[in-house]
Sequence to fold (105 residues):
Amino acid sequence: MDGDLTDAQWALLEPLLPVPPARGKGGRPRHRSRRELIDGIRWRFRESGRWDRVPDRYGPYQTTYALFYAWRKDGTWERLVSALGAGHEASTIIPWASPAGGAER
Fold:
């Protein structure tokens, strides 16, 4: 979709992502990829919309919201920005985060 991560951007970002936690026996299977969820987060900030308005194609808004805030709390967004560098690429891929200010909203 327009505004979603390009394949080139995803190729830069994917190897930097934290390893997902192991699901326990009988845990819920993942139905959405992290790329879809990140694209949902990007949609929310690009459109300045509410979390419950994130389109269904990105997965349940609750999952998108939970990933954003979990990664904000544990510093993942800041680490990703730092790993991508402070240049244009980082601000294009993760526009709500900055090396100095951290994830916002």
About this structure: The two ends are 24 Å apart (CA to CA). The helical segments are 7-13, 34-47, 61-73, 76-84, 88-93. Residues 34-47 form the longest helix (14 residues).
